[in-house]
Amino acid sequence: MRPQTNPEPCIKVLRAGPLALLQDSGRFGVRHLGVTQGGPADQYSWAWANHLTGNPWGTANLEITFGGLQLVAVRDLQIAITGADLGATIDQKPVPLWQRISWKAGETLAFAAPVSGLRAYLAVCGGFVAEPVLGSVACVTREELGGFGGIGAKLAMGDQLSVYNTELHGGEGPTQAPRTAIPDFSQPAVLDLLPGAQIAHFTGRSLFDAFNTWWQVDDRADRMGVRLTGPRLNCKISTLVSEGINLGGVQVPPDGQPIVLLNDRQTIGGYPRLGSLSPLSASRLAQCLPKEHVKLAAKGSDAALAQYRSFRALFNSASR
């Protein structure tokens, strides 16, 4: 049963910025139809934003890429902003990140440009109102699914957003994330990679280079995937029968430059794969700006699973 909906808009969009999308935990059980999962590119920061506002796992919040967004509150709200530092201000005063704060009616919340990281997450106590499509409100623009209007549209100037039950005040959860939980996006990222079925088909030199090179994030990066540039990786097989692709899969096309596939990826592919990033490493990569450097580190599936279970144990797994 859904909580009470406030019929009147609670937030108005004054300036949309390049890319602001509504994201819940993602769209699952439909990949056999060719529909990808969507959901937050940085699941870690998304989860903390909901946690700090007392929302259960799966509640939709806003993913704001690059900044440039301006919103005005129509009602008093409790919010949290996590993820990248995009120079957020309320009425031109800096906003503290990774904690619950008050946003009063009439105040303007603005995001400028990346200071550290790429994507910020804005959660509001109660959660944003949107009608699910195929079981989710996750916005995937390529597939024209989800979002506030159900057609995969990013926020636009003049949009008006409603919230479930603005009387909620965040429940009993924490109001501020501990320092140890806040990522430092200014530091180079070391990404855990679970070796895949085709890894034995890469040459010895390529495997050495794969795990001993600082790769550069290419300009060709979006919610579908991130291309890494560095030494050419050579595989003894060039193509495969297309198979399902999971979040974080690291494909190596004929040019030898790895592509890490993210939330809006295609559902199948035929390039050989080194393996897959762990979910938390895929989240970390999603915060990397072009020209930043990352390194791959081999990790076993048991250790990666234990790490992810520990992460999920922090949050209320109940769904709305």
From TrEMBL:
Q: What's a Gene Ontology MF term here?
A: hydrolase activity
Q: Which residues form the Carboxyltransferase domain?
A: 32-315
Q: Which organism is it from?
A: Marinobacter antarcticus
Tree of life domain: Bacteria
**Which Gene3D superfamilies does the UniProt entry name for this protein?**
Cyclophilin-like
List the protein's name.
Answer: Biotin-dependent carboxylase uncharacterized domain-containing protein
Q: Which UniProt keywords apply?
A: ATP-binding, Hydrolase, Nucleotide-binding
